[in-house]
Amino acid sequence: MRTKQGSRILMECEVCGTEFLVWPSDKVKADKRGHKIRYCSNKCKGIDYTNKSFIKRMGKEKATEAIKLIKESKIEARNPQWKGDKVGLNSLHQWIGNRKPKPELCEMCGIKPPIDLANISQEYKRDVNDYEWLCRKCHMTKDGRLKRLLEFFEQEVNVNDKDQKRLRDF
Ligand SMILES: [Zn+2]
Ligand SMILES: [Zn+2]
């Protein structure tokens, strides 16, 4: 049980800059162990650990490149763009979307809710069977972006299983 020892201390996450509150008793405990409370979450802790371990293994320049690549792939995953003629594809997207309602679960993994309407043949046919609803992760895997990313890391560093898992979860 947590004992109340006055008000909590406001701290700033070293990774994302988010302010978070820490109980003084937790800070005392951390100080005793020689630890510093530096992150708002385990996610930020993981990001910092990954950054540092990449810098250590491949040097600052390559690590910066690698981290940029991860960030880009994340942005790309958040904003899937239709390739080629945008106007034509937007109306095609709409046409397919009207005829292929979003299922409850991703058509590939059947675990996560789908987010992207993905084209199967890459030919953008006006055919509902040429499209599937995928979650971001499956869409990325399918597009080969994640594969290319992992290949990049495998070439650059000896990526261990832990890193692989972490990158897949990014
Ligand atoms: Zn944070
Ligand atoms: Zn999926």
Please supply descriptive tags for the structure shown above.
two-stranded antiparallel sheet, mainly alpha, 170 residues, 6 helices
Coarse structural class: mainly alpha
C-alpha Rg (nearest Å): 22 Å
User: What string gives the helices and strands in order?
Assistant: EEHHHEEHHH
Name every ligand kind in the structure: zinc ion
Low-confidence region ranges: 81-86
Structural commentary:
By secondary structure, the chain is mostly helical. It has a domain at 80-134. It contains 6 helices and 4 strands; from the N terminus they run ββαααββααα. The strands form 2 sheets. It has a two-stranded antiparallel sheet with strand order 1-2. A hairpin with a 6-residue loop joins β1 and β2. The two termini are 33 Å apart. The structure holds zinc ion (2 copies). One zinc ion is lined by residues 13, 15-16, 18, 39-41, 44.
Q: Secondary structure elements and their pairing?
A:
Blueprint (H helix, E strand, L loop, with lengths): L8 E4 L6 E4 L1 H9 L9 H37 L7 H14 L16 E4 L11 E4 L1 H8 L1 H12 L4 H9 L1
Antiparallel strand pairs: 1-2, 3-4
Helix pairs in contact: 2-5
One zinc ion binds next to loops.
Short recap of the structure:
With 170 residues, the protein is mostly helical. The protein has a domain at 80-134.
